[in-house]
Amino acid sequence: MLDVEAQEPPKGKWSTPPFDPRFPNQNQIRNCYQNFLDYHLCLKTRTRRGKSTQPCEYYFRVYHSLCPISWVESWNEQIKNGTFAGKI
Question: Is 71 helix (H, G, I), strand (E, B) or coil?
C-alpha cells in the first residue's frame, strides 16, 4: 500500500508547527497522531488520483516535529504488518 520505508524528510527550512485550534492544550499527543493519520490519508488519496503528493509534506513536517521517533517507527511497522489501529 504505502512505502513507509521510503519516507524521507523534505529538504528546506523546518520550523515549529503552527498553532492548531483543534488541539488547544499543552499536551500534543493527539495532534501528533492526527497529523500522522492525515499524512498517510493524504498520500493514499493523492496517489490514487494521480496527483502530486507535495501538499502532504505539511503533515509530514508536523508529525515529525511533534511525535517521538519510537512511536513513528512503531506505527510504520504496524502499517507494514497490517495491524495499525488507525483508519487510513
Answer: helix
